[in-house]
Design brief:
By secondary structure, the chain is an alpha/beta fold. Helix content is 55%, strand content 15%. The chain contains 8 helices and 5 strands; from the N terminus they run βαβαβααβαααβα. It has a 5-stranded parallel β-sheet with strand order 2-3-1-4-5, with helices on both faces. Helix 2 links the parallel strand 2 and strand 3. Helix 3 packs antiparallel against helix 4 and helix 3 crosses helix 6. The longest helix is centred in the N-terminal third of the chain and has 20 residues. The chain is globular and about 45 Å long. It starts with a strand and ends in a 6-residue tail after the last helix.
Length: 181
């Protein structure tokens, strides 16, 4: 059985940086990072369907037992939902809902976030949609629906990665077979 850990959050929060650090920190748990491959220049809808296909491939591999015990997803359907809500794109939102019904449920959803001034310093070129998406990642109703844990992105990336790694270890220990709880 593969445990899926999803790392989400606004642009500039350090999702990819933290996700890339996690396998080394979680090596005893045999983890790997799934990161979306950008489809190149295309419309937002084409990108959304490309990312959905990539997530479906990982889900299929998990179902077949072809993935390690722990998969760290650098973005998942939650990010698709946040982008669709920000852009008011009903078709992309419907696609995100379809993914929720068909993709495996993550054992942990981590939203990495920082104050707007920190994010602005890291991503001064952020688009209006990217800046608006920050509010989706901070919406308590959305976070509760996702079952997300928010981790502050302020400070050194290694410390942020360690905070996330500790959360992952807690979840894995709690879900381990035969722990009697």
């Amino acid at each position: 059985m593969t445990a899926l850990i999803c790392v989400c959050g606004p642009d500039g929060a350090g999702k990819s940086t933290v996700a890339a650090m996690l396998p080394a920190l979680l090596a005893p748990l045999t983890s790997r990072v799934f990161a979306h491959e950008h489809p190149g220049p295309c419309t937002p809808w084409a990108a959304a369907t490309c990312y959905a296909a990539q997530r479906a491939e990982v889900a299929s591999r998990m179902a077949l037992g072809l993935e390690p015990a722990l998969v760290i997803a650098d973005r998942w359907a939650f990010c698709a939902e946040a982008n669709a809500l920000t852009r008011g794109d009903d078709a992309a939102y419907d696609l995100a809902l379809l993914e929720y019904e068909n993709l495996p449920r993550p054992a942990l959803v981590v939203v990495i976030d920082a104050p707007d001034d920190v994010l602005a310093a890291r991503r001064p070129d952020a688009s209006k949609a990217e800046r608006c998406a920050r509010q989706v990642y901070r919406d308590p109703v959305v976070l509760a629906r996702w079952g997300a844990v928010v981790v502050s992105a302020e400070g050194d990336a290694r410390e942020v990665a360690w905070r996330v790694a500790r959360l992952v270890m807690d979840v894995v220990a709690r879900e381990a077979p035969g722990d009697g709880r």
